[in-house]
Amino acid sequence: MSTKPASTAAPNDDAARAARTAASRARALVTLVFIVLVAGAFGTWWWLRSQQQLGAEVARLAVAGDIRMIASQDCAICHVAREWFTQHGVAFSECLIERDAQCRADFEALQAQGTPVIVVRGQPMMGFEPFRLREALRARG
Length: 141
Prior knowledge:
single chain; Glutaredoxin; 4 helices; 4 strands
């Protein structure tokens, strides 16, 4: 009777087991990457949808004269706010503290630390936050 030494069968079994484990890990990694990509795409879609709804509501609530942005020429957030207002069709006016003496005086009277100052129906809001803007328009509507 011929017996095969146990040591010769084990390396083949170990190699097969290692290959199955590597393949299983690769499938798990691909699945995880797919789930992360789908979740990211859904999150982006949801954020864009909520921004569109928010913009539409602000545009509906605001009429000419309700929103005034006190801005400065080199203010990045002012640029973002201006683009957001324009993109969503929100009625607003804007003045630049470097070019308009009354704008500068209004800015200084508010003792604001920086621009933009969004004045909503006479009430100043420091900075630009669309959700706060919507709430201010709702409260003073």
